[in-house]
Structure formats: structure tokens, C-alpha cells
Amino acid sequence: MERVWEIAGNLGETHKQVVPITVFVTVLCFCLVVGHLLEENRWVNESITALIIGCVTGTIILLISKGKSSHILRFDEELFFIYLLPPIIFNAGFQVKKKQFFHNFFTIMLFGVIGVFISSPIIATGCWLLFGKFGINLSPRDYLALGAIFSSTDTVCTLQVLHQDETPLLYSLVFGEGVVNDATTVVLFNAVQKLDVNRIDGWTAVKVLVDFLYLFSTSTALGVAAGLVTAFVLKGLYFGRHSSVREIALMVLMAYLSYMLAELFELSGILTVFFAGIFMSHYAWHNVTDSSRITTKHVFAMMSFIAETFIFLYVGMDALDIEKWKMSKLSGWDSIGVYSGIMLLILLGRAAFVFPLSALSNCLNTSTRRSSSITLNHQIVIWWAGLMRGAVSIALAFKQFTHYGVPLDPVNATMVTATVIVVIFSTLVFGFLTKPLISYLLPHSNASNLEREPTISKEALQLPLLSFEESAATNLLRAKDGFSMLMERPVYTIHSFWRRFDDAYMRPTFGGPRSNELS
């Protein structure tokens, strides 16, 4: 036995990087096996499984190292933002149900953008009032950063329980808000880093808003451009006639290139790669061979799955990082007070925008053909879905309060441990309660009574936007009718105009069947 330990020790000295990576990959494989065995149990999703296994693995490493460390690898926020986050966000855009997403685009943007700007100040102000009672002193920038960090949501647990076919509206809102929320919090976090905290006045909020709008619009435009360029190249060169591997590789590399270009120009890589995914699935996906279509969907989903599992596995291990706990000077009861206070602020910040903005969305959609609005039960599910915190919160906390994964002082260590505890508590506790809550609020017998968006008739799609073959009076009449429709049903009208423009100009240029060919 001593000989075995001696060999293991020699291997550890010789291959300092290979051994921890091997162990981590082994634990990842174990997560996959356990997740498969628990597939029938929708109470426990992959995130919860990875967290629990991470905690158990951290405990074992802590015992083996005699209390020195619970880590196999040292977390680096650059690893997260450059290698782990892009496949997760790109897959979300690539797999999104575009029809539902854009039908509910206005409501999704209300929750995902305006909601963050409501909850973030509430959380930042609450932390400022709360932490002073425990002797924690942070800079104004740190408080504003905490508002963004704890406004980021993780809706995976809720999405696993919801049935997309039974609750299309609710699923679309929860999914769409989750992605837009991540992008918004990162953009807001980056805008906060550029603030001159020594000169905060009435114009500060305006400056943040202007920076946000600039980052949001330019990042989106870059993602759209990347998706369209990829589609145009695939359509024009038709890689599939020689090798399907090249066309798959081009899609993967162009997606990653769009993300890195956004980071290079200090834009939002999340927004860029998300819209690149949407436009690649809308156009480029139709320009590849049938085998490549199947392969790309599975490859992108696989990359996203491994990245998410990796992150939650590490978070579980990091909860037992003795170095951070020793560095934090708070007593046990004070720590509980800080964690409880942050959770209460998350609950309040979430409620402060979900219910008012749902009422606003219902008012604005009263003139549409929706058979039902966002009911109170739906609003509670949306509120609950956004209470869980995940990978983006962890990464932003590490970026703000550590230097290459190591906090430099006790206050920073307290902020990192608080974020880790909030993520674990919200994921485990709220995640376990998600299924019974949804089963109670949305019984299957009533699940189908959700909104059905109005469909666009074939005749409407075949009508031209403007026709040179018709008189000016006819074109003006059509424009007048279109403007009236826009005032009465803005989302439906914009969508119908987009479908006609897409069929007339975009699909012939960038690829994909026309709408009347899909019917």
C-alpha cells in the first residue's frame, strides 16, 4: 500500500497539471452517470447533482489534504468568460424557439432589461444599509457591482420542470428572460467598472444608461453580422459537397470569433454570441447538409452541458475552501445575518419588478388576440424562477473581489463566500421546491389554457411590402393600413412585416425556406 502512495506522489510531482485535470474529468464523468440515473426524477436537475457531487468531492479532498485545500483546480474568471460561457450562451441562442421568443420579445425585454435596472439598485442600496451593521465597508463601485452580481438569475431548474408544449408562453418568458438577464447584468457590471465613483451625481445614472444602450446595440449588431456572414459563406461556397466537417467547424469557429471580437472591442460577448446563435440557426443551419444539421444541434448542446456541469461542480468544491473561510473575520451568526439579508434583498428585488411589469405587459397586450394574459400564478412562477443564482453571479463575484481566484483581504473573502453560499442555497433549496410549486400552481388540466399567438395567414405573407406594379394610391393605402395595425397590435404587426421582409430579401440571400414553403 505504501508503494501505491509513493507512486501516486511521484506522479503528482511529475505531472502537476495532468493529475488534477484527470481527477476533475473523472468527477465530471461521474456527474454524467449520476445525472442519467436521476433522469426520471425532475426534482433533481444537473445543476443540483453537480453541486452536491462537488461538495462531496471537496470534502474528500479536504480530508485527504488534512484540511489544507478542497480544490482540484484553481478557478480563474478568465477561464469562465473565455472558455466556459460562450458555448452556454451560443447554444441558448441556437436552440431558442424563435417564434415564441420574438412574439414575446417586448415582455422578455421588460423582465430581462428593465427588471435588472429595478432590482440592481434595490440590492445595492440594501447591501449598503445591511453591511454597515456588520462592520463591512465597501467602495461605492463594489456596492453597485453587488447589485449587478445578485441580479443575475439562473432559470435552469424551472425550465427543466416546465413543459414547453403545455406552457409555451411561460416557458418562452422564463427562458428568454434568463438569457437576456445574463447579458444585461454583465453589460451593467462592465458599465459600473467604468464609473468615476468619486464624482457620482445626477448624471451618473444617465451615463450608465447611455453606456448600456451603446454596448447593447453594438454587441447585438456584431452578433447579427457574424451570423449573416456565416450563412452567406456557407450558402455561397457550399462546403458540404466536399466535407461536412468543414461547415460544422466554420459555424463553431465563427461563433467563438464573434465572442472574442466583442471582448476585444470591450463589448458584451454574451449578447454577441447569443444573437449569432439565433441568426445561424435561422439562416446558416439551412445551408449545411442534413447530417451536419443533426450534428451541430448535438455538438452545441453537448458543449453547453459540459461547461455548465463544470461550473456547478467547481462551485460545490469552492464552498469548502478553508482559506476563504479563515480569511473572513465574521462570526458564525454575523455570517448567517449577511447571507440571510442578501437572500431577502434578492426576494424583494425580484418582486419589485415581476408583478408591476407583468401588469404593464398585460395592459399593453389587451388589444392583441391573446386568449389569456400573464395570470397571477404565472407571475409567481416567473418570480420564483429568477430567485436562483448561478454561474454568472459566481464569475462576476470572482472578477470583482479576487485576483486570479484569490481574495486579497477579509472583506473580499466575505463577499466571495457570501456569493457561493447564496448560489448553493438558492439552487438547492429553491431548486428542490420548484417542482411541487409548479405542480400546485399549474396543474396539467389547466396548463394548456395559455396564450396562443395569432398566426399570420399565407395571403398576408404573400402581399408585398411595396409594389412598383401597383399605383401609388394602392401603396399608400397599404401603408396606412399597416400603420393602423402597428398602433393596434405592435408586436404582431412588426412580426408580420418582418416575416414578409425575411421571405422577400433575407432568405433568398442568406438561406432557408420561405414561410409559405414551411406551411
Walk me through what this model shows.
Helices cover 75% and strands 0% of the residues. It has helices at residues 2-14, 18-37, 46-64, 77-95, 98-103, 105-131, 140-149, 156-161, 168-193, 204-237, 244-264, 269-282, 290-318, 322-327, 332-364, 376-385, 391-401, 410-441, 444-447, 458-462, 472-488, 490-510, 515-518. The protein starts with a helix and ends with a helix. By secondary structure, it is an all-alpha fold. Residues 445-464 and 466-470 have low confidence and may be disordered.
Radius of gyration: 25 Å
Q: Write the element-wise H/E pattern from the N-terminal end onward.
A: HHHHHHHHHHHHHHHHHHHHHHH
Helical fraction: over 70%
Q: Which oligomerization state do the chains in this entry correspond to?
A: single chain
| Low-confidence regions | 445-464, 466-470
**What general outline do the C-alpha atoms trace?**
globular
Secondary-structure class: mainly alpha
Give the strand tally. Answer: 0
Count every helix, treating DSSP H or I runs of 4 or more residues as helices: 23
Mean pLDDT: 80
How far the N terminus sits from the C terminus, by CA atoms, comes to: 69 Å
Largest sheet data: none
Measured by DSSP, the beta-strand proportion falls in under 5%
